[in-house]
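Priority: low. Protein: Putative cytochrome P450 126. Input follows.
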Amino acid sequence: MELAEIDLTDLDRFTDGDTPWRMFEVLRGQAPVHWQPEPAPNSGFWAVTRHEDILTVERDPETYTSEQFVNLEEVDQEQIARRRSMLETDGSDHTALRKMLMREFTPKAVAAYESFLRGLTTRTLDAALPLGTFDFVREIAADFPISVLTRMLGVPAEDSPQLIDWGNRIITSEGSDERHRDLPFRSPAALEVFDYGRRLAALRRGGTGTDLVSKLANAGLSPTEFDTNFLLLVVAGNETTRHAISHALLALIHNPEQFRLLREDPSLLPGAVEEFLRWSSPIYHFRRTATREVELGGQRIRAGDKVVLWFASGNRDESVFEDAAAFDVTRTPNNHVTFGRGGPHFCLGYALARLELRVLFEELLSRVRAVELVGGVQRVRSNFVNGIREMRVRVRGV
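Result:
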């Protein structure tokens, strides 16, 4: 692939599981800070693809702000006011929102979910594995993050399928309808999420509950702030981890020697989880906006330019990861940037994601001798979420 062929805005290039990585490889080698034109009404962005440069931007929110929004869409001040969540704040506002929720996401707090997760895993595998052939995403991967999320939000477990559906519809929204310009991702599904969250908040406002909905409802947020941050929890708490789970299994299918290694030595799993996260890179990118003129990677960036951090590319940077294109469950060190790294927007759910991945694969690998694909893999058509929509597999027991 030639540099002139690169187009990070073409969503069709993100559906085959190969083209994005070839584009990133070319960019890292030839133009690690590369100007990418965009179709109107957007105005283009700087694509940052090297690990070192990603960290430079991530750790400097004063120069590279999130407050002009973190996806590629360019929004006006009215949209910003109506759509801002914790993701799109910096400074003291961001710190206050994180502090309000952080206690529920510490490693100590999420460790309390391990026995629940192990029981959930057992029930899920008991139902799926006897089928022999099934869609791994629907039967297994989707259950874990959403089931924990419903407990943390304090919502009925039977609402899980609806939460999954809303997340899918929001993430895959084409975002072209002007009627929905003030909604996250311009998705009408956001209105359904808002209505659901408001009904929950009305029941818990003024109470002493410790669930996440109660915390948001009693935090003094405006109605709009409640809506957008509730939606963030619903989408972020579900989409990313289930895609990481699916990508991890796909990597094990394509690398059977790594599958056998983990089955023979389960003590490798905590380290393997880091490789699952590096390899899966469930979020391709996040955007920042330059607040001043600055030089990055030899390029002069102007104030107001969009600067897009391609975390997925940073996770395959050959200058950081030996044999970066190889899936290696024994890789150490593993300084991936899947959760961000060292900056104020480091993923709040990092400990929970690690726990979910570890428990699921501990249980799965103890019960399954081999897994093979049945047909192709259907991927999410997105340059934001690196997701798998459907992946049919055939399993053989121990």
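The first strand starts at residue 33 and ends at 36. The CA atoms of residues 69 and 88 lie 5 Å apart.
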